[in-house]
Amino acid sequence: MSDKIKIIGGKQLKGEVKISGAKNAVLKLMAAALLAKGETKIYNVPELTDVTIMLNVIEQLGVKTSYDKQEKSITINADNITNIRASYELVSRMRASFIILGALVGRCKEAIVAMPGGCAIGERKVDFHIKGLESLGTSIKIENGYVHAKAKKLIGSDIYLDIPSVGATENIMLAAVLAEGSTRIQNAAQEPEILDLANFLNAMGAEIIGAGTSEIVINGVKQENLKSIEYTTIPDRIEAGTYMAAFIATKGKGIIRNIFPNHLTFYTSKLTKMGADIKLIEPTTLEVSCKRRLEAVNIITQPYPGFPTDLQSMAMALATTADGVSIITESLYENRFMQVPELRKMGADIHQERNHALIKGVKSLTGANLKASDLRAGASLVIAALIAEGESLIDNIFHIDRGYELLESKFRMIGADIVRISENDNSVINQDKGSLSESQL
Q: What homologous superfamily is domain 23-232 in, according to CATH?
């Protein structure tokens, strides 16, 4: 059973939004905290169901955690790890929890972690993760849906990734921190979340050079060299990009705070080309507005620093009412156009052929009953509903809850007509559904 979101479109958004901590960064920092004994504290932690799941995974290992809702912080005490098994029931709910594999191999030299399974947006194999860990001296068997990894000791190695996989880069980094000698990852992922993880590990006492580039070197250290720390997560660039799209789509004007603009350079350039006005008014603050009808644009998603695949669906929502024909090519995931049938229900003119989508801008969209198929597709439906004429009802919003903190509250503060409706009794929920409750933790 899932709650729904009801949106009455046509409202011009105005005001300020503060961006939360990056989901895709904090989940990896939580796993990295397992490498050091003692109590590590992470700040700027968003209230999301994915964070709750990751906490449950960590607690299953015998690690103590606590969450301070007011402070937006998580404390992880990894003095003792009493269990090396991450269950299917948890790992299957969130693919990112597979990152626990590298952390356990590094700290305990053994791990039993469920295979993450399929993904709604397309196939994401773990071959690169496994080959990377094997290069460090880990013996790996896959049995009964679990990856069983074991090493007498880890030895640094040169590892080349056929594709710059974010997850594989992170898993190898975590394991290599406590390996003997140096590890070099070539064709490494360059996402800001990789750099944030390296900064976190270096603060703990690791020696990592080159994070944020295509070649990362990890000089192994001993367990006693690692210490618990306090660390603040970077802002969520995908959440920031979503609110930028919302202001632009509704021809509004907004201030977006707690944003690292250099994380969104390629995305910002495309929005500007479409007709948006984006100004840097402070080092971590953007002013975003749009006074005219948008123009068509061509987009090809690429690994960072290229156009982010996680913002492709938001760009498509903008293109549905832009002048001309936009072409979007999704080069990373084969099922990343799952928002297309839902946008068509609203009157969008979209022709899809494999990984290419041609979007002919229409005068306006109309409200409809919609279903979110995944996190980012769901967010794009919110953008589309905000500009549509009439009422839209979005189902399966548990997908959206995975990555957007207090979504309804933030949108209401900038003028959106948006409410959450309980699936159980069709009543309107006035406050956003919190993901991290005291009872859960």
A: Enolpyruvate transferase domain (3.65.10.10)
